[in-house]
Each structure stands twice: as C-alpha cells, then as structure tokens.
Amino acid sequence: MTTYQKTSLISVDEAITKGRKMLLLPRVVMAIGLFFFLFAITLILIGVFEGPPFTANIWLICTGITVFCFVVFFYLPYLFWSKRTTRWKLWAFDNVDDVHELKIMATEAHLCPAFGTVMDKLQIQSADEREQWLKLQERFNFRSGFIDDPDIPSTTEVFYSKLHLTINVLFALLFVAIGSVIEYFAVKNDGKTSLKIVGAVIATAPLYFIIRSVQRMLKKQPELVLNNQGLFTEPTGLLNWDLIFNEKVTRADQGKRGVKFTFSFQHPGGITHIDISDFNISKSRLERLIRVYKGRYSS
C-alpha cells in the first residue's frame, strides 16, 4: 500500500469547514422550497376532500400548480443541493489528507452520503461526475498521509466547561426556588402533607447537582491532557499513543435529558469510557487533537 501521489493535501477539518459553508445555502433553499411545495399540496388536498367537486378546468389548474410547485420548489432546490454536494465531495476526497477520516466526519456532519448508499444513488449527477466519484474510491487503497496543524500546541488540557456548569447551577436554583415557593404556601395555608413533601423534594434534590457543579468549577486539575507523547486521564493515568487504539467519540441522544458525548478508547488495561458532555471541548475538536497528536507521535 503506497501513499497517494499528490503534492499538496489539506486537513479533514479544512475540508469539513469548506463543506459546511458551501452546503449551507443549498440546505436553506431546500428547506424553504419543501415548505412551499407541501403547503401548496396541502391546500389542494383540502380543496379536494373538503370543498365542492372539482370541474375538469379546476383539475387542470390544480395539476398545473402541482407540476409548477414540484419543479420550482422541490426539483430545482434538490438539483442545486445535488450539484453543490457533488462539487464539494469530488474536491474534498481528491485533496484531503485522510479519506478514511473524511468519510466518517462527512457522514456525521451530514455533508454527503457514503458511496453506494441509497441517498448517494439518488443524487442528481452527470455520468462524468459519477465516474470521478467511483475513481476517487481508489484512494481508500492508499495509506493516508499526515499533515501537522501548527495551530495545535504541544499540550492541550481539557477541563469542565464553566459555562455548562453555570447553566446547570442556574437550572438547579430555579427548581430550588419553585420547590421553596410550593413549600412556603403549603405550610402557610396548612396544605396537604403530600404537597409539603413534594415541595421539600423539589427544593432539596437539586442541591446535590449544585454542590457537584461547584466542585467541578473549582477543580484545578484537568480531566484530559493530550500532548505529543500520549494521553492522560484520571482513570488510566498517562498512556503513550502507541498503547491507545480504537479511540472514538460517540454522540447519544437521551431525549429530554439532552445529548451525551462519550470518549472511548482501548488500552492494555481494558476499555475506558469518559463522559465529555460537560467538558470545554467539542466532539470535532477532540477528534482533531487525537489525530494530530497521534500523527506527531508516529512521525
């Protein structure tokens, strides 16, 4: 397996950033177009099922409106999105340093569907564009090159986010206030015992979260330390990068509880999972740091 022969390659982050900028307008146009298309169709359906019987002329007019709305508000925005997406992915997968990483990041960012999927086949592309896209899949047979990022320092420390913790404290204080008000009026008006218990629980339960959040805000030691040599976490201590593998940052939707981000990796001692939801680092930033530091260690 040889290295892809190209004089200059860009980083995955650069490609993703450009992709987000290029595809923002097509997404907005598609969303607006879809709204007007469905709005027109809804009005026609209401007329069909709720209004008087349609005459032949009215049916002809409704058919013309439907075709017009389909072309203007659905097909043309979809064509615009398909062409812009195709232009970006052909450029990105030809110029990026790590196509394996780009494939994962582009899919997670919803910038383009993976090769061979249903959505990939549904994109409107010319025969030449499909041929180029197919040819670019050969890049997955080459070893990915490493491009250093000079903006990333030799060491990065990750702490709990004071902003996230402050928001948690404010929400907890809100529940304390609500519980206190309920308790006050329940006692003042000699309310039911059950109401007094509910008020007390609502007022006292958030105190645990307030204390925990304040402790994390005052903590001086970082939760993660990444550098050119390895990774430090409280559960594992310092590990060199050659002892860390299958690392990934996953996103899990917990419904009303929000979104949870988990950093997982394997090492000689087993598998470690760290909840980074309240850390002062994003999923993409952490993934970028890991790629750069591991690349520096290996080079």
Automatic annotation (TrEMBL):
TM segment ranges: 28-46, 58-81, 165-187, 193-211
UniProt KW keywords: Membrane, Transmembrane, Transmembrane helix
Protein name: Uncharacterized protein
Species for this entry: Mucilaginibacter phyllosphaerae
